[in-house]
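Lab notebook, bench 4. We co-purified these components, and the gel suggests they stay together. Before we commit to crystallization screens, I want a quick structural picture of the whole thing.
Request: model the full complex, all chains together.
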Amino acid sequence: SQTIHQWPATLVQPVGSPLSLECTVEGTSNPNLYWYRQAAGRGLQLLFYSVGIGQISSEVPQNLSASRPQDRQFILSSKKLLLSDSGFYLCAWGGLAHYNEQFFGPGTRLTVL
Amino acid sequence: ILNVEQSPQSLHVQEGDSTNFTCSFPSSNFYALHWYRWETAKSPEALFVMTLNGDEKKKGRISATLNTKEGYSYLYIKGSQPEDSATYLCAPPNDMRFGAGTRLTVKP
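Here is the predicted assembly.
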């Protein structure tokens, strides 16, 4: 069976510090991978998605970046965090089965102070 | 890209009431549609994938219908319970850009 791991679960970082959130998937190959963010009081915003190693599509201009160094690894990064980067970050994977139904990781609660 | 819109944004019902909400999309380029249930501080969970015009899917007290010709899908909850309180999201499968969701609150 497939599982998705995401860490850390919570993170408190000062403004201007770097960020690295990691997501890994087990039990499937060549998944589509996604990073989402929920800011306070808002909906689920797609940040990045990837259909393969090294292939990243960015949805919104921001100080975040994503990388996919391996087939089942997806990393969200920032060189300098802003207060507005606070939120709940979710990684998800989808595949061709069931019309790309998505399976979400447990999420990371990021607070930037 | 299939842009979806959801209505209403929020809904408050009493325990035992039945309710429904809508996901609208342009009918011209429809492929499929996913419904998700998202509880606060948790991860979204898939409810249904809707693919064919006239589809009706059911899971317990929750059901969904699809009308691709007019461009909408309805989600119904029969006899709402407090544990149904969540945000209900729809999204097309290709790019998974979710709608803003309908936030349902069921009061005991």
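Chain A touches chain B at residues 34, 36, 43-44, 46, 49, 59, 88, 90, 92, 94, 98-107 (CB under 8 Å). Worth comparing against the SEC data before the next meeting. The two ends of chain A are 38 Å apart (CA to CA).
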